[in-house]
Amino acid sequence: MKARIMMVAGLVILLASAVGAQTKISGKADCAKPEVVGTAEAGDRAGHTLTLQKATCTWSTGLEMAGAKSKDGMDVEFVEMWSTKATTNGTHVSNMDNGDKFFVSFHDSTTVKDGQPVGPIHGTWTFTGGTGKLKGVVGKGTYTVTPNADGSGVVDVEGEYTIPPPAPPKTSTPKPKTSK
Fold first, then answer.
1. Secondary structure (3-state) at 19
2. Domain range spanning residue 87?
């Protein structure tokens, strides 16, 4: 009985350490000036706007995950801007060089001067899913955007991720025969 308890306890510790093992990642993406889908004045004060926009990005230094490297992607983001600050919430979808994809939710804020972001923009991100070998990916991290004068930007990303092991195959149990 003690041996069985010790074996189960050892298995639990082993599984806990495997689940908790995070792999560090970092990369750099060059993102084009966002295309504005639409902008509306909030109406509560001058300079308060809400904008939906999208931008394409190319990874100059791709994130390496599960034996593949990120190559390009797209952001769709919602920007709320006031006269002195802006916040952004969005989704990023990246394509890996093996055809897999990963999905990220991101959030940031920055100071604004004359309608343009000032200095580096700092934000956080969280994986929301993936395809292929990245299915079930979890993790999070931070990023810094260095804006360019033309509206494009360079994004430095770092964080960590875990891909859970695949679920074991389901086995079917034969139904007992019933006598009539």
1. helix
2. 23-162
Task: Please count the CA atoms within 13 angstroms of the CA of 92 that sit on its side-chain side.
Answer: 28
Asked if 110 contacts 121 with a C-beta cutoff of 8 angstroms, the reply is: yes
Any domain includes 175:
no
Measured distance CA(97)–CA(152) in Å, rounded? 23
Examine residue 110 and state whether it is found in any structural domain, yes or no: yes
Please say if the pLDDT value at position 156 is more than 90. Answer: yes
Q: How many residues does the chain have?
A: 180
For residue 145, give the nearest of 33, 29, 20 by alpha carbon.
Answer: 29
CATH number at residue 54: 2.40.350.10
Per-residue model confidence (pLDDT) at position 174 = 65
* Residues 6 or more apart whose Cβ sits within 8 Å of residue 155: 28, 29, 30, 31, 57, 143, 144, 145, 146
Tell me, what DSSP letter sits at residue 44? S
Residue recorded with tokens 């964080």:
159
What does the pLDDT average to over 166-178? 72
Count structural domains, the chain.
1
Q: Are 59 and 95 in contact (CB under 8 A)?
A: no
Residue 71 lies in a domain: yes
Tens digit of pLDDT for each residue in 115-148?
Answer: 888 879 999 999 999 999 999 999 999 999 999 9
Encoded tokens for 23: 């792999």
